[in-house]
Design brief:
The chain is α/β, with parallel strands linked by helices. The chain has 6 helices and 12 strands. The strands form 3 sheets. Strands 5-6-4-1-7-11-8-12 form an 8-stranded mixed β-sheet. α2 packs across α4. The mean pLDDT is about 95. Bound molecules: cytidine-5'-triphosphate and magnesium ion (MG).
């Protein structure tokens, strides 16, 4: 069984509006509730630590969901800081060698089958860790300063990194703390681990595990929920 770490302390600047996107409702439940349900309803997930903004007035105070423990903690100014804070709030009896799953609160459309394949990738005895991702399918253009096309970039072997990302509790904590100490802002967990010279595995996941960034993404999620 693996604990889930859920960074949910963002302000949703690109989404706009007064209510942070993780608290917008779809089919009568917040995005965060959908995300926690997708994680905690999976048989391999033991519980969740959720990183919240300081004094978050919208947190419903859950201590248990789907019969599993939920722990809240205060996140930080960046996603990486929030993840590090949540790792530190894990129950002390979660061993350093245990894998944890880090998953954005803003990705509520996670499929159980994707969690299955990610967990399977970490079942090997000496696994470093793995992330869900998808190959880049569009042709990539590099822009010049005026928005013209400077070059067409090869897209072979380029992937888009999603979450969940799965790493060992102790190693991920050290990797994030080290990056922070060196003033390097890592944008995902794998980047922190890569900096140690280790090689996490790419697990191809579903394209519909999208992150809600703009109102169009929320409409897409509402559509996905209506089809279930
Ligand atoms: N997050 C966090 N702590 C931060 C920043 C982000 O826990 N200081 C979380 C967000 O709540 C979200 C996830 O990290 O679940 C992915 O970040 P993103 O999609 O960038 O969300 P926001 O930072 O809230 O949005 P924006 O960048 O548009 O402000
Ligand atoms: Mg952000």
């Amino acid at each position: 069984m693996f604990w889930a770490i859920v960074p949910a302390a963002g302000r949703g600047a690109r989404f706009g509006g007064e209510v942070p996107k993780q608290y917008l409702e779809v089919a009568g439940r917040s995005v965060l509730a959908h995300t926690l349900d997708a994680l905690l309803s999976h048989p391999r997930v033991a519980g969740a630590v959720v990183a919240l903004s300081a004094g978050d007035p919208r947190w419903p105070g859950w201590r248990e969901l789907a019969g599993k423990p939920v722990i809240a903690c205060v996140g930080g100014a960046t996603r990486a800081e929030s993840v590090l804070a949540a790792l530190c709030a894990l129950p002390i009896d979660v061993p350093a060698e245990d894998f944890v799953l880090v998953h954005d609160a803003a990705r509520p459309n996670l499929a159980a089958a994707d969690l299955d394949s990610l967990c399977a990738a970490c079942d090997a005895p000496y696994a470093v860790g793995a992330i869900l991702a998808a190959p880049v399918r569009d042709t990539l253009k590099r822009a010049d300063a005026d928005g013209g096309i400077a070059a067409t970039e090869p897209r072979d072997r380029l992937w888009r990194a999603f979450t969940p990302q799965m790493f060992r509790r102790g190693q991920l904590t050290r990797a994030l703390a080290e990056a922070a100490a060196q003033g390097i802002e890592v944008t995902d967990e794998a980047m922190a681990i890569e900096r140690l010279g280790l090689r996490p595995v790419l697990v191809e996941g579903r394209e519909d595990n999208f992150k809600i960034t703009t109102p169009a993404d929320l409409a897409r999620f509402a559509f996905e929920v209506s089809r279930r």
